[in-house]
């Protein structure tokens, strides 16, 4: 073994117990978390290395040391903590005799723990992709049912066919993203992990860069998955209009974006109206618009955003205006299309946010447009009927 001792175990630790998932040199079992040596410090993310555990007060009276469950002397534990900060368990090696490790052995054990953690993460991502693929299949099945219903709805046939064709095209794009764009980062992760496995024993500094590149790829994939699922749900989730204070929805959206508001001022009038709309969908709409205003700010002046609402006949006209980079006039209609970005090279966003806004406004029977803010920037205006009749899911 790497450590030169006869006993090793991979532990998973939850709120109440420790499960010795796989062991070497002894028969594994489940024990109470309160009896676990690895549970003492594993949430800190720091390695524990004790040539003689009986000399450390934190472990001297543990049943694995005293003889109740075992007579551990040498003890080494490397926590398994995900990049998101979730502590899963530990990689542990131990012996009934005092034992010391070299620096090289310690480094190799740490590297082995990282490889195990990466394999757990890869399996988690595979499950997430399977769930996403199942959701796409379900959406296609719903679309096929909708096509079958067209034969029983001749009076609305023309308008329904237009909407279903657009929905079908978007769902096909969604399926394409799942099968290609979302699979590509996983391929990167797998490739780098294979390289790490081949060269892990060489203590090569390049390994750290490979791990970092893999982590960034997984992050991109997760953000894209989140955006696509939000878009899909905006068209398929039930739309339940109810009297809702627009000011409360703005406050909730800003609270969700508080980490992005550094240096920005947001002007919200105190007399925003009560609208009749689905609060969950409109909150998502406002969060997308405010998030874009905060993200695409100009570097040469402080970010300023204004939210306003006024009656216009039998509808509300609601606006979110900023003084940011703005949208070129030729692209102000196209930005509401799926995967359209004003500046793809900037690497900001995926071109899904405004498409989601378009879907939400359509569900409420309104319209949404982008215009220029006087003095520079973007003003997005959307309308909501004062008495909303929610559209059927796309």
UniProtKB/TrEMBL annotation:
Reactions accelerated catalytically: ATP + protein L-histidine = ADP + protein N-phospho-L-histidine
Subcellular location: Cell membrane
Domain called Histidine kinase: residue spans: 177-388
Primary site of residence: membrane
Annotated keywords: Kinase, Phosphoprotein, Transferase, Two-component regulatory system
Matching Pfam families: HATPase_c, HisKA
Domain of life from the UniProt record: Bacteria
Gene3D superfamilies in UniProt: 1.10.287.130, 3.30.450.40, Histidine kinase-like ATPase, C-terminal domain
Top-level enzyme category: transferase
Enzyme Commission (EC) number: 2.7.13.3
PANTHER family in alphabetical order: BACTERIOPHYTOCHROME, TWO-COMPONENT HISTIDINE KINASE
Listed name of the protein: Sensor-like histidine kinase SenX3
